[in-house]
Amino acid sequence: MDHTGALIAIARRTAWFMDYLRAARELRLQSWCVGAGAVRTLVWDALHGVQNADALPDIDLAYFDAFDLRPERDAELARALGPRWEAVNQAAVHRWYPAGAESGLVAVAPLASLAEAIATWPEYATCVGIWLDWNDKLHVIAPHGLDDLFGMVIRHNPARATAEMYRARVAQKRYAERWPKVQIITT
Question: pTM for this structure?
Fold first, then answer.
């Protein structure tokens, strides 16, 4: 099965998601995507036969700008997009992502691209981003593929999160309550 084609088809027929992509595109960033939980919610709601953008707690704009690492830039972009948006320059993650047992996080070396950053997100099913070019063509960034996303599998990606952080995220997100078909792989 062509998961990329299926993801693009789901995104295209989901008005709220296309609206988010169009809004993000207006920022004219060189390298960006809407990703993580927004994409997971898009797909898993579709696979469960529901569509509820209001249930999305936030919309993640990931972008890569190695020339402007100011934290204020993230806040400026989020404000420009509106409520519920979070903007994170993936080129700056190594500056603010503390490591250590007390934080539950793994140290992050400086990243070279948006795709490399996406590859480090906490669960493989959410290591996915989508962006919209000026010709209205959708592009998918999925460094680990789309099998976990479409298989509805939550599996720990140890690149950036410890096993403890992963377990806490699974408990906090309560995936199985919202999406009963989800399979959670514990560590």
Answer: 0.93
- Sign of the C-alpha dihedral computed for residues 118, 168, 161 and 93 taken in this order: positive
Backbone angles phi, psi at 105, to 5 degrees: -110, 155
Beta strands 183-184 and 129-132 are unpaired
Q: What is the pLDDT of residues 15-50, one digit of tens each?
A: 999 999 999 999 999 999 999 999 999 999 999 998
Per domain, the residue ranges of the chain are 3-184
Name the pairing type of β-strands 153-154 and 85-89: unpaired
Cβ atoms of residues 39 and 129 within 8 Å: yes
pLDDT by residue (tens digit) across 47-89? 999 877 676 889 999 999 999 999 999 999 999 999 999 999 9
